[in-house]
Write a structure and sequence with these properties.
Layout lengths: L6 H19 L3 H8 L3 H9 L6 H10 L5 H14 L14 H9 L2 E6 L10 H11 L5 H14 L1 H4 L6 E7 H5 L5 H14 L5 E6 L13 E5 L8 E4 L6 E3 L2 H17 L3 H16 L1
Parallel strand pairs: 1-2, 2-3
Antiparallel strand pairs: 1-4, 4-5, 5-6
Organism: Streptomyces violaceorubidus
InterPro entries: Cro/C1-type_HTH, DUF5753, Lambda_DNA-bd_dom_sf
Protein name: Helix-turn-helix transcriptional regulator
Length: 285
């Protein structure tokens, strides 16, 4: 599923390179904005890869940074062109978390902590339908179906025959106990999680209630890592109206340490699978 031309990843790489050129020149984002008669926020958005970068933007920035090597300019211009192509998710229309999907599509590994629900990559269709309907009660049937289709399509990353996404999930026990879609849906959902957890590239751990307070108490987050060393790791925190992406090394390190503590406090893999299977049986009664 990872595309050789992933627009989201291309924007990130291009933004990182433009930031590097600015820093080599010793200029601030504010100074660059003044030279180009644009807002400082535009320069920041271009550098963090959150918006498309036109070839004209690249040309203007290379001029400000006095890049003399035409090969570098041509390479950056091509990256800008690639970054404006559409990923598979654009076929589904306006997806609020399209930036995240682009990152997930290209990621080599994903570590996620879920305090309330089964993580999207492991959801069954009935569970996903019930979850989206419950979380977004004013959403039309058509939009619910579109979101479900996107979620199912994303799961191709963990079922790929070659180079599947390495997934590590820590689920709070509340994820197993919160009845989404009814008892039958929950039984099938938990059986699916238990089955998927037996794949060599998928690890699932359960954080039991009796752990008490823990480092993930403030909520859900994910850490995405990439095969290309040019792509820095990203911490993703999902929001209601907007999402947060953290890429600075100290931030990523802090969340990584938190995740290590969560893994240490959770049940081990075998105990977790047994807990999931036991709760699934409870829903069958």
């Amino acid at each position: 599923m990872a595309s050789s031309v992933n627009p989201t990843v291309r924007r990130r790489r291009l933004g990182q390179e433009l930031r590097r050129l600015r820093e080599i020149k010793g200029m601030t984002a504010e100074e660059v904005a003044e030279r180009l008669l644009v807002s400082q926020s535009k320069i920041s958005r271009l550098e963090n890869g959150r918006r498309s970068i036109s070839q004209r933007d690249v040309r203007d920035l290379c001029g400000v940074y006095e890049v003399e090597d035409q090969r570098i300019v041509d390479s950056l211009m091509q990256m800008a062109k690639d970054s404006r192509q559409q990923g598979w998710w654009h076929a589904f229309g306006d997806i609020p978390y399209s930036v995240y999907i682009g990152l997930e599509t290209d990621a080599e590994s994903l570590r996620t902590y879920e305090p309330q629900i089964i993580t999207g990559l492991l959801q069954t269709r009935p569970y996903a339908e019930a979850l989206i309907q419950g979380a977004l009660p004013e959403t039309s049937v058509a939009d619910v179906e579109k979101r479900v289709q996107v979620r199912i399509r994303r799961q191709e990353r963990i079922s790929a025959e070659h180079n599947p996404l390495r997934l590590w999930v820590v689920l709070d026990e509340a994820c197993l106990r919160r009845v989404v879609g009814g008892r039958q849906v929950m039984r099938e959902q938990l059986e699916h999680v238990a089955e998927m957890s037996q794949l060599p590239h998928i690890t699932v751990q359960v954080l039991p209630y009796d752990v008490g307070a823990h480092p993930g108490i403030n909520g859900q987050y994910s850490i995405l890592e990439f095969a290309d060393t040019a792509d820095s790791s990203v911490v993703y925190i999902e929001g209601v109206t907007s999402d947060l992406y953290l890429e600075k090394a100290p931030d990523v390190q802090k969340y990584t340490v938190m995740y290590e503590h969560l893994r240490a406090q959770a049940l081990n893999v075998e105990q977790s699978r047994q807990r999931i299977e036991d709760v699934a049986k409870e829903y069958a009664r």
